[in-house]
Design brief:
The protein is mostly helical and 393 residues long. It folds into 2 domains: 189 residues, MFS general substrate transporter like domains (Growth Hormone, Chain: A); 184 residues, MFS general substrate transporter like domains (Growth Hormone, Chain: A). The protein is 83% helix and 0% strand. It contains 15 helices and no strands.
Length: 393
């Protein structure tokens, strides 16, 4: 592989991640109401299928990581794009609940093969020293998936309907992602994946997955995602509960996306001088502070805005931290398998957290118990991460 080719790889993965995230994840929220009207099903049935797909994405992340670690990313990500295209095409034809759910289960496993985690594994196989920089560049680019695909899906669905729109999304996976994965991704795992840059080559994969450090990281990352994801679905209702108008709540919530990108830009700028482990600890601390600010802000717009800035910046940086930390703490040659194992509970918590948050809200019909619970959960993530990385500082 030439010196320039790895960065060509990042450019290609940026394109495929935008299409994959946009068509498989973000488009659902735009298609939800048209599907509800056409199919005549209640919203919980439709959202349940999508939540199940996210759980399957988590279940599939560990074997996906193991396969990439052994065989490289080309075959798996290509098959993932092919499956995504076929399943989206089938989705456009479905009229009953059982096939609808089976299709979303399949789409969940397709996500495990094409979203961030496999892309990060491919990058760490192909880069020697600049893998974290490449991951940051990739997440910066892919951060525009919602910016592009929410309006694109809306533009399509109004005149064409959700079924034709789903077919168009299938074609994007077939005509853009599949050929790029087939012809650009390396056929086999690169030198980096075979221990050339290992942090601890004497530790077997089995021993790594049983180590205290691995489990501390798994708890930290899962608790952090649980806290972030639980609030993400409930953010606008929470702001409305504080007395904000619908327009004001949406305007404040809109801060989160740009702040996530800004957080990644700051991390990129400081990356050479501040280790990813220190960046991770700072990012993790921001979340419980943001939760407490939301708890006590009431209708104070300035304090609410500060809370959302902390909330968004934390998640923006943590996307990079979750990708880079396994390479810092464990054998580089085991990266794909270890990252896949760490990602499994994180992805599943992203699916389960909003539902659990709804149950907690229902106890008192307000968000104070939820915010206290999320602040404690986010603080647990800080403590576990600190104990996992403290010896590497």
């Amino acid at each position: 592989m030439t010196r320039t080719r790895p960065w060509r790889l990042v450019l290609v993965l940026a394109v495929t991640e935008i299409v994959s995230w946009g068509s498989l994840y973000y488009a659902f929220s735009v298609l939800l109401v048209p599907m509800e009207r056409d199919l005549g099903w209640d919203r919980s049935t439709l959202v349940g299928a999508f939540s199940l797909s996210m759980l399957c994405a988590g279940l599939g992340s560990w074997p996906a990581g193991a396969l990439i670690g052994r065989y490289g990313g080309r075959a798996l990500m290509s098959l993932g794009s092919l499956a995504a295209a076929g399943l989206l095409a089938l989705l456009a034809c479905t009229h009953s609940v059982l096939p609808f759910y089976l299709i979303w289960i399949g789409l969940g496993f397709a996500m495990a093969a094409v979203l961030y985690e496999p892309a990060f594994a491919v990058i760490y196989q192909c880069f020697k020293d600049d893998a974290k920089k490449a991951v940051t560049v990739l997440t910066l680019a892919a951060g525009f998936a919602s910016t592009l695909f929410w309006p694109l899906t809306q533009i399509l669905v109004v005149p064409l309907g959700w079924r034709t729109t789903a077919s168009v999304l299938a074609l994007l996976n077939l005509l853009i992602c599949l050929p790029l994965h087939v012809f650009v991704l390396p056929r086999r795992a690169g030198a980096a994946s075979h221990g050339a840059f290992s942090r601890n080559p004497s530790l077997s994969l089995h021993a790594t997955l049983r180590s205290k450090t691995f489990w501390q990281l798994a708890i930290a990352f899962t608790a952090n995602m649980l806290a972030f994801s639980a609030l993400s679905v409930h953010l606008i209702p929470l702001l409305s509960e504080r007395g904000l108008s619908g327009a004001a709540a949406v305007s404040l919530a809109a801060l989160v996306g740009p702040v996530q990108v800004a957080g990644r830009l700051v991390e990129y700028a400081l990356g050479r001088r501040v280790s990813v482990l220190r960046s991770g600890l700072v990012a993790l601390v921001l979340l419980p502070v943001g939760m407490l600010a939301l708890l006590f802000a009431q209708a104070n717009l300035s304090l609410l805005a500060i809370a959302l800035v902390l909330y968004g910046a934390s998640n923006g940086v943590m996307t990079i931290v979750r990708a880079a930390t396994p390479a810092e703490l464990f054998d580089r040659g085991q990266y794909a398998s270890v990252n896949g194992a760490l990602s499994a509970p994180v992805i599943m918590s992203r699916a389960a957290a909003p539902i659990a948050a709804s149950w907690l809200w229902a106890l008192e019909q307000n968000y104070r118990p939820l915010l206290w619970a999320l602040a404690v959960t986010a603080a647990l993530a800080v403590a576990c991460f600190y104990w996992a990385v403290r010896e590497k500082w």
